[in-house]
């Protein structure tokens, strides 16, 4: 049985990770660290876990584990690995943005954890930088065309995300009274996830597309909807073939010709992609759950690959539907 530790376990991604690992047949949670909630039962904070676990949050971590998940905020993961001695035998999966551009620390080299692009590298890795949620959904929508050099220089992309994407700490834009019945843009053309997208796309060919990304805050709790469009001579039939072949060995990314609804992927580790062709424009919609395929679910997917388990182990999660 694999022993896992979690740092920053009281937040949204920590809670999702606990839920998944409690039901993973090959994993035992050794500890869940939270500086703010130490001593409390996990079910007192993640209240849906009442009856699922008697574990408590702890303040200190130890290295008597096989894998360590870092669910701390951006900058905090690098700080943790700087201040704490983590055994070289412990595999590290970081859910922050601290190592997504190939950064290293204390001799640890990090592999970017997008399985649909780097599955073989992930299976050999000791440390993983888990992708951002917007970055996951955008890249999955564009990867097949970018890898084949079929994307024009400019891609127009919009994305709307649920309030959980802002984390558990309250802010002016995450209060219910502000968020409900409302929509707004932020970080237009300058979202931090563009850095990792550009970093990866730059490795795929001589020319990487210029992604003009407009993010939106949505009046719902979880999920991401991305719409990208760009000029191409590729027909819809040929595009469908390219996408289907590209993702045929990837269990969580699916191509559909039916209309999409965000509810199809919420509470799952899936990404659904739909293609449309209007004149010279290929329109690509890609949807994920920001806390699962965009964070904790993908982290467990990466862990499965790193440890030699079947990729979807513990991740047969079902959408809630209506």
TrEMBL record:
It is an enzyme of class 1 (oxidoreductase). It is found in: Cytoplasm. Belongs to the NAGSA dehydrogenase family. Type 1 subfamily. Residues 3-125 form the Semialdehyde dehydrogenase NAD-binding domain. The gene is argC. Catalyzes the NADPH-dependent reduction of N-acetyl-5-glutamyl phosphate to yield N-acetyl-L-glutamate 5-semialdehyde. Pfam families: Semialdhyde_dh (PF01118), Semialdhyde_dhC_1 (PF22698). The active site is at 133. It comes from Marivirga lumbricoides. This is N-acetyl-gamma-glutamyl-phosphate reductase. Keywords: Amino-acid biosynthesis, Arginine biosynthesis, Cytoplasm, NADP, Oxidoreductase. Its EC number is 1.2.1.38. InterPro entries: AGPR, AGPR_AS, AGPR_dimerisation_dom, AGPR_type-1, NAD(P)-bd_dom_sf, Semialdehyde_DH_NAD-bd. It catalyses: N-acetyl-L-glutamate 5-semialdehyde + phosphate + NADP(+) = N-acetyl-L-glutamyl 5-phosphate + NADPH + H(+). PROSITE patterns: ARGC.
């Amino acid at each position: 049985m694999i022993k896992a530790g979690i740092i920053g376990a009281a937040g949204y991604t920590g809670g999702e990770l606990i839920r998944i690992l409690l039901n993973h047949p090959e994993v035992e949670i050794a500890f869940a660290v939270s500086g703010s909630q130490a001593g409390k039962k996990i079910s007192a904070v993640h209240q849906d876990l009442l009856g699922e676990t008697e574990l408590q949050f702890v303040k200190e971590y130890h290295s008597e584990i096989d894998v360590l998940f870092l669910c701390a905020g951006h900058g905090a993961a690098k700080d943790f690995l700087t201040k704490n001695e983590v055994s070289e035998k412990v595999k590290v999966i970081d859910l922050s943005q601290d190592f997504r551009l190939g950064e290293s620390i204390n001799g640890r080299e990090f592999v970017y954890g997008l399985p649909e692009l780097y599955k073989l590298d992930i299976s050999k890795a000791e440390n993983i930088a888990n992708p951002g949620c917007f970055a996951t959904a955008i890249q999955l929508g564009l990867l097949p065309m970018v890898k084949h050099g079929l994307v024009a220089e400019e891609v127009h992309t919009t994305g709307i995300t649920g309030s959980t994407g802002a984390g558990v700490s309250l802010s002016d834009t995450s209060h219910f009274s502000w968020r409900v019945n409302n929509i707004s843009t932020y970080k237009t053309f300058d979202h931090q996830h563009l850095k990792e997208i550009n970093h990866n796309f730059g490795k795929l060919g001589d020319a990487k597309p210029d992604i003009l990304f407009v993010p939106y805050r949505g009046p719902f709790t979880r999920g991401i909807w991305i719409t990208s469009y760009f000029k191409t001579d590729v027909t819809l039939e040929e595009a469908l073939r390219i996408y289907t072949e590209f993702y045929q060995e990837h269990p969580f990314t699916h191509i559909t010709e039916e209309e999409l609804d965000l509810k199809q992927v919420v509470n799952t580790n899936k990404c659904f992609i739909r293609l449309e062709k209007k004149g010279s424009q290929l329109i690509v919609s890609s949807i994920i759950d920001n806390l699962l395929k965009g964070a904790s679910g993908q982290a467990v997917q990466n862990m499965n690959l790193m440890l030699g388990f079947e990729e979807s182990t513990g991740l047969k999660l079902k959408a809630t539907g209506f």
